[in-house]
Amino acid sequence: MEFGSISAELVVVALAAVALGALIKGVTGLGLPLVAVPTIATFASVEEAVVLVIIPTFGSNLWLVGTHRQFAGLLSGHVPFLAAGLAGSIIGTFLLTAIDDRWLKLALAVWLAVYLAQFVVGNVLRSLFQAKGAAAAAVGFTAGTIHGATGISSHIVAPYFHGRSLAPDAYAFLVACAFLTFSAAQLVTAASTQLFTADRLLIGLVALLPTLVFTQAGIRLARIVSDSAFQKILIAVFVLMEIKLITDVFS
């Protein structure tokens, strides 16, 4: 059975992955592309996975930015990071079409490994992301480029803002602004380079519904499930993804 050029099975996987990622985002504030892209990429190309997640990522972060818009005054202190990240996202999206899928899956595997390592050795990268000015722009450009090429930049964005000693709501606003900036550039670039086929566009729009529903569910779930229990489940899921991605790279 086919959904245009995309199989019905992949549509189900994509929607389920987005729903799971949105649920985790609701609980932790991060996680939609981090979960959805590697999951979809185990059943399809990285290009397919990244493009299918662009619209849900954009929608979820637009909603979060609107929710916490009272912190908009904080943006002036992070213009170099955001502006360079926007440029990097454009370049990264072009790289998505130019780099062999195996290398993109290897990049995803490396980033997942970095993320998992943080749970073992602690957030050893935090001090590297307390940058300002030109250094902040360099960090932003790196984050944006990686986001454009893989759909994932939380490993850089999260510690960059975490090192600023922000209140939780202010942190959520700035992180969402970064992801919104990157995904907006990614969205426009993907459309201009015809990465959005009619089928991918439709699936991305349909995925907005589970994105919003499961983000809200995650917010409620956060009040019930202990953080330690949830982190154990999350790590187990990531380990399985890591194994599958590495298998794909070296098979």
Give the key terms.
251 residues, 11 helices, 2% strand
Written description of the protein model:
With 251 residues, this protein is mostly helical. It has one domain (2-250). Helices cover 77% and strands 2% of the residues. It is built from 11 helices and 2 strands. The chain has helices at residues 8-28, 32-41, 46-67, 79-98, 101-121, 133-150, 154-162, 168-192, 198-206, 208-221, 227-250; strands at 2-3, 6-7. Strands 1-2 form a two-stranded antiparallel ribbon. Strand 1 (2-3) and strand 2 form a beta hairpin.
Mean pLDDT: 84
Largest sheet: 2 strands, antiparallel
Give the overall form: globular
Low-confidence stretches: none
What's the short story on this structure?
The protein has helices spanning 8-28, 32-41, 46-67, 79-98, 101-121, 133-150, 154-162, 168-192, 198-206, 208-221, 227-250, and strands at 2-3, 6-7.
Give the SSE layout.
Elements: E1 2-3, E2 6-7, H1 8-28, H2 32-41, H3 46-67, H4 79-98, H5 101-121, H6 133-150, H7 154-162, H8 168-192, H9 198-206, H10 208-221, H11 227-250
Antiparallel strand pairs: 1-2
